[in-house]
Amino acid sequence: MATEEDLKKAEEESPEDDEGAAAPTEGEANDALIALLAQAAGLPPRDVALVSGATARIKRLTIAGHGPTLAAALEKISGVG
Left, alpha or beta for 56 (phi > 0: left; psi -120 to 50: alpha)? Predict the structure, then answer.
């Protein structure tokens, strides 16, 4: 499971603004979202799937795993609870 330190490091490594950033490519942001959620939940990316919203700002995903464990991991990274 990803620690708060891992998430902070990933956040620090991301650019603060889009100046000079490469143009987005199809699916790249979705792949990054899946990788981030999988890492945060301590799962392989194959256990996270995009269900809808591939081109929209709002996404719907499924995450395979033990419900209470996933809920605890997601609460921890979201600051809820």
Answer: beta
